[in-house]
Predict the 3D structure of the following.
Amino acid sequence: MTDAADLRRRTAELLAAHPPATTDRLEFLRARFDAGLAWVHFPQGLGGLDAPRSLQAVVDAELEAAGAPGNDPGRIGIGLGMAAPTILRYGTDEQKQRLLRPLWTGEEVWCQLFSEPGAGSDLAALATRAVRDEGGDWIVDGQKVWTSSAHLARWAILIARTDPDVPKHRGISYFVCDMTDPGVEVRPLRQITGEAEFNEVFLTGVRIPDAHRLGAVGEGWQVAQTTLMNERVAIGGVRMPREGGMIGVAAADWRARPELRTHDLHQRLLKLWVEAEVARLTGERLRQQLSKGQPGPEGSGMKLAFARLAQEISGWEVEFLAEDGLTYDDWTMRRPDGVDFTGREAGYRYLRAKGNSIEGGTSEVLLNIVAERVLGLPPEPRTDKDVAWKDLPR
């Protein structure tokens, strides 16, 4: 079995064969993947070594100390956190071999075509249609919305309705969509921050080969659950040090501006600091659970905590900084590569955090998931459970 000593040896061999100071960044990342040091818990030949997930930290620490380049996870987070686990679990051998390496190295960016204008919180009500033609390909028509990174993406994970004659959860299939194909149109959605980090995507007669389907026809909802559970862990379970992230920025503001301190603000900051530390330690426990299997509904609780804390901390910071908290560096319409919660000013954090309780599952929906699947409370009545999708009122 691979252990920490073996991983250090393998990492040293990688560094010796590809010195970071003289090796092209992409060449180094490809070599790291091929050495099984990309995500060590993945299978051999797919960037891993079938090692415990917890040992990834050993590799990361060795490479960081050597100044090795990273794969910019902030830019490719959807691929890493959502697409890759789904492909690993449901993809064919050919799909895994073709898609996982350029996904991890960042050569190919991914986006997520799930939400629709009429199917956000109730995602299973989606109306985007995929109809199979005589040649076996799927022709897709519909509209998706809130699609992060669609303007950068080469690939998308897509769910579409393939059978309208069965209840909504049973008539969905899951596909990999090439965003460069004819019929894919990406339009920016300008947000409250002034940026267009999100997009709406229109699909008109987009042809998807059946070889790009993940899972069985009509079982896309089960496949999507893997994506959604991993998405919530990716959003709410990011590893960080004590006083890292937004609480670290708020604490630094407090230490740097003693003239703005009040007793009330101090008490609120202490409360937020403790809650942020509890969330961080809970995230560590969740990652230990992940090393033993697939993520469960506990990730929804982490995402809930992340959204609430981000909004409360950013609100505290704006109030503490008074008029300085209202400054904003640039309202220019732009399409960024990602979100920066710690490198921008307080005004940006306050505005951007408003979306945290919507993206990746609304807080209201996640509260239901935690209540029903974690606490075991009675589920809400669902009158549409056995009704064919085509007969649902819209």
User: Anything to note?
Assistant: The mean pLDDT is 92. The first strand starts at residue 110 and ends at 113. The longest helix spans residues 263-290.
